[in-house]
Design goal:
It is built from seven helices and nine strands, in the order βαβββαββαβαβααβα. With 182 residues, the protein is an alpha/beta fold. The strands form two sheets. Strands 2-7-1-8-9 form a five-stranded parallel beta sheet, with helices on both faces. It has a four-stranded mixed beta sheet with strand order 4-3-6-5. β5 and β6 form a beta hairpin. The longest helix is centred in the C-terminal third of the chain and has 16 residues. The protein is globular, with a radius of gyration of 16 Å. 33% of the residues are buried.
Amino acid sequence: MSKVFVITGPSGVGKGTLIAELLRRVPGLELSVSATTREPREAEVDGRDYHFLGGEEFDRRARNGEFLEHATYSGNRYGTLRTEVERRLAEGRSVVLEIEVQGARQVRAAMPESVQVFVAPPDPAALRQRLECRGTDSGEAIDERLRTAELELAAQQEFEHVIVNDEIESAAARLEEIVRNE
């Protein structure tokens, strides 16, 4: 039976790294490609990393109900196109969504059967260090992401599964266990 797995947590917590490991370990899972209004980072490819949309197109699609979820995060819009998820489910494939907390709540409301996993840092200082090491955001953008992270961390009790990403191998093993058990 195909399922939707929602992986959420603050920026810099390592969601992408854990998901890449999960996809390697569990054949047949597919990552949904999100849409965003933010500019592509170096080496990102439209349609592979994100569907990069202009603000007007994003708004039009939102008005037309084309998103399963959408939200503004750190000044940019992000969303999951319904077609990205529904097509895979109809084909019997399970889908992984890498989204932020607002979006996870929307998916929970629309698809209560989705499996929701919150990834938490070992401590808030680890987030700053990870964001700075990525080298993709300005100091101001990092500060904004950390302010948002404080609110997101307070919401982790809403999620049926919480994984502390203090060591990648053990966190990836826990995520794999959750997915296989579901």
